[in-house]
Give the backbone structure.
Amino acid sequence: MDVFGSFALILAFVCALYAFGGGIVAILTRHPLLIKSARQAGMAVCGLIWISTLSLVYLFFSDNYSVAYVVSHSNRDLSTFFKVAALWSGQEGSLLFWSFLLAIYVFSVLFTYRNKNGELMPYVGVILAGVQLFFLTISNFVSSPFKVLGVANAAGGMDLVARSDGNGLKAVLQYPEMVIHPPNLYSGYTGFTIPFAFALAALLARYPGEKWIHLTRKWTMIAWGFQTLGILLGAHWAYAVLGWGGYWGWDPVENASLLPWLTGTAFLHSVMMQEKRGMMKVWNVWLVFMTFMLCILGTLLTRSGVVSSVHSFAQSSIGNWFVGFLCIVLGVCLTAYFKNKDYLKSENQLDSLVSRESSFLFNNLVLLVACVAVLSGTLFPVFSEWFTGSRISVGAPFFNKVNIPLGLLLLFLTGVGPLLAWRKTSAESLKRNFQWPTTAGVAAGLIGFVSGFHEMFSLICLILSAFVATTIVQEFYRGARVVRMRTGASWLTSWVDLTLRNTRRYGGYIVHFGMVMIFVGLCGQAFNKETEKETPMGSTVSIGGYDLLVQSMDQKQEKNYVADRMIVEVMKDHKPVMMLYPERRNFPADQESGTMVAIYSTLREDLYVVYAGMNPQTNLPTIHVFINPLVKWVWWGGMVVVMGTLVALLPNRAAVVVLTRTEAPAAAPEFRGMRPAQVTLREGHD
Amino acid sequence: MSAAPVFADQSDRTHQIGSKLKCMCGGCDQAAGKCYHVGGSYSGPCETAKTILKEIDQYIAQGKSDEQVLQAMIAEYGPLAYVEPPKTGFGLVAWLMPLVYLLAGTGLVILIMKRWRKRSPAMAPAPAGAPASGSVHVTRELLERARELARRETEE
């Protein structure tokens, strides 16, 4: 199977080479058969990568310990569930897995548009094949997952050997989130290849208009949705598994995943400027180029160990390949841009400073400043070493100080932007739109202050959250009211109808609402409490109104690990609330151990209990307890964001406005007072 | 029966100061107040972190302010011990960078907005092929363009 898999991989490389080279010749000669064969080679690459990846999965399932990658990332006792995750737990496998996910996107694109967009697709095919070629080069010749174990024999050759068992999967990776977090994040990373390829293709082909944006709109949203989910799942993994009480530590690898998310978010917004107003064409192209390059940079940072990180399980020296690839991509983008930039002439004009256009400009500004600030902060220790010879630590407090104000500014724009009209917003509409949200914000601020929110940023965050949430509720209310007047349906039906009629706009609002919830959750961090105690059996730890009685310890023997479990009774106001069982798992295969945090989670706060192990000096069990307010809002907010993204991906349902209007105008008396133009306009602005 | 604290003084203040100082054990990349050694056999603070936290405790007991404690610790362990870049020398660059981005970016946006404001809102001139007579000749392209513009700005 290893031979089969590596053979498929080398065939994929050959096919990609053909799709790339043949594609270029096809573009130059415009030969229809050549174009077709290049496209089919592109599809074949995808099939071959799948075969290769599935072979590797099969090697894991069949416990084939003659393959080096399987030996170092699996063992016989590893459950089937985690054998799938073992595929991407090391460098070789995760790069193959990267190709695998990219192949899914590439195949879908090539297949969907096989008979469409004839002028653009050959370019897209070549660019996609180029990206695949890079990853296949690495997987084939630099970091192959199919290397077999061998020993030198007397004749000077090599004999194949097989081990009886593997070294096992790293302990911290044996958690359900680790099975879903990387695929999501990678799907996000790889997904941005599609808008990138279309943007570059449109530029190279001097393809007119906003077509590439229309074509890639859904792909961008899919990629963005996966990336958001991936980042949040990663945060949840850090929270529920690592046991340090938090979910975001500004680790270089976390930062790397955030960078393309920030530019991707900016891109999702600024494309609307081009779609609606024909503005910012140059900027959009560069935003998507940057997003793609940041995805590659993210992989580079994760893999190369340029900056130290807790994700060090993925380190190696293939960084130079990525640097080379990044330089090539940048070179191609710059060349394409300077050669064809005349084609990107925008119709930029601004009618008013208070308009949707300017709010998008500021949205992009804040997102980009945050992105560059995080990037330079992450790389600063390296700069410092270059310039001064000594490293400087740039830790979480730095990133918090820099990003909290930026985040709040962005939150403010989330509330303001969608309520400003395109071109120009009148003072009257400003008053109408912001009356209630401002009131809600002020009220929330007062209530918050009285109930103990005395930390400045948290208080501002609370005020803005209430403000933004009200703008969103108001939009849904107003829209649904119009539908209700026309159809007489219930609020819920009107609301659903409204959403389905303009999924992108209302899906976007739902995403915004989810982001508000996340911000509310982030606020809570300012009020975290923690305590760490050595606890003989029967002793109590008190924190934040809870009393934790450590009752006893026990041990569970599982297939792949031994779990030491602490049995803790939680009491609040001397009344028992629940039992918690924080665990430590010891994995004999690699002598590693990990924590399994026990969390009692409410909307108000999380009681987060870690069994830290036996203190080696005193031989007493140590318990580490945190009170983390509002954390649940982050996870629920994340779910709302994903839901909103799904809504935005639905095709719009055709409006039935005209029908109702002509059929029964008399049946709806309230309707008469309203100008029909207003109805159309309301549905209009996105 | 009450549990014994791990540190001499279990105050939040110790932890707060400790989370601004790096654990210098070399095995983790965490702050002393947040050193848990993920994957290790004991995920409490390691000996190095504990020593640092105990020192902080002692300084607090001497009545030093947070800043004084930090300065004393940095003097002992070197600038790398501080999790934030120092606000002097090259470290200052790290702090100024985001501010410079924001100011430069805002300046750029304002400049762009000014320039866009100056553009005449009138439609682009008719294509070269259009007759140069005084009456506005509505060509098919012009009409199509106006329709397209109206569609984009109102629908969906």
